[in-house]
Amino acid sequence: MLSAPLSFERLAKKGDHSDLLLRLGTYRHTCDSYYLVIDESPTASRRLGANLARLLEQWRAQVDELKGTGGTAYLPYDFSDQCTAWLRVTSTDGRDAAVHAGWSLVEAWGIEPSNYVATSPEITDFDPIAGAQIACSLEELSQCIAMNAEAHAASRY
Fold this sequence. Notes:
Distance between the termini: 26 Å
Structural class: alpha+beta
Number of strands: 7
Strand order of the largest sheet: 4-5-6-7
Shape: globular
Helix content: 25-40%
Radius of gyration: 14 Å
Number of helices: 4
Order of helices and strands: EEEHHEEEHEH
């Protein structure tokens, strides 16, 4: 069992509002899959599970880029009309990470979730949520993200 307490899952309900749950340590956040469902980029799928897997594959690629060198990556998880929620992953040594959930006033309508690295603007106004953080190794975080992505890719939704 991995010690990085992070998951991003689909709740057992129909519709594209309040149907996703992010768990980060003791912090819980319910959000919508709406922007994942309407993503029209060439890398998007018609299946929500595939789009969630694609989002998480991008997360993992960004986390893996921090290994060895360190730095900061922003991973989006809540796409809303007037703001977005992100995980800020910071590593000073390229091994260990601090992961904080928070908000940005970047609006989701300009971002393609299946290609957010290329389509989202730089996050310069990240506002961390008090108590919404974990510390873990980058490797543990990467493995947790990969397990989440695999579960979504294999899903029927």
